[in-house]
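Sample intake sheet
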Amino acid sequence: MTNINSAKNTVVAEIGLLIYRDCQLAAVYGLSDMFRIATDWAISISGEDRKLAIRVSHWKVNEGDDTVECVWDSHPDEPHRMSYLIAPPSLVMPALMTSMKVSADWMNTLYNKGVTLCSVCAGAFVLAETGLINHRRATTHWAFAQTLADRFPKIDVVAEKMVIDDGDIITAGGILAWIDLGLTLIEKISGTGTMHATARFLLVDPPRREQSPYSVFIPNFEHGDSKILLVQHHLHACYSEQHSIETMAERVSLSPRTFLRHFQKATGLRPTDYLQQVRIMKARDALELTGRAVDVIAWEVGYTDSSAFRKIFRKIMGVTPSQHRQRFSTE
């Protein structure tokens, strides 16, 4: 494996780690080490004389003036351009966790700039204070699930899943689920080969052992168009509703023609295709994790015609819903 300083660094993403009071520092440093190992393996796999580096930065609330500052950075000489922020687990029970308003406000600011927010275990309580996972599915440690649901009743808490990837928000379950989250992010950033190489080196299983080879939808939230970002967030949160071009354009005060042009430029997809990708992502999760009928799942993700759902699913995933369930179901 190549030494970390022996090749040119090309930063492909920056991952921030939030250090809050009583958080699990083992997760912070473990993730930092994992992303460094992934960086080393990326050059071994690519065979190129450059390192596809994952930049890692640590952020902490300055209690003196309620600001959040960077306290460690793997690439300190470069301006920050964060892609992901992770709220790690807590070492104390949720009942003893203090208010995280400053952290939550900062996370909201980052989210509105296109940063994907992530949490592990009780880190979901920090993320929940942002209000951004209201009316969404989220996971946490099974022992904390009811507490999270009681404290934040607008969240659909799904304790049985290890990782829930909503595209713009990712939550992971147990206290060691930072391993699953870290590998999930490595796959998104550096590809499946680097993720598997990192997992093998660490002697851990890949996340979702038989991850679908068709799961290729990685939404872009870093395009800089705040109006389109607002529509994206709305589609991820309200995917089962009907969304016309006119209503989406009206939401951000653009004409339909201008909205279409801006949306496709920012995301690479037409709004209808983007919504289909989001819905199929949700349907895939339901097929893997539940025994609900395909027709029911189709209705739940926004399709009134189950035959149309099956056609779209096969077009995007390469297999029928039933074939996908047979291959990847955890039931």
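Comment: The first strand starts at residue 8 and ends at 19. The radius of gyration is 20 Å.
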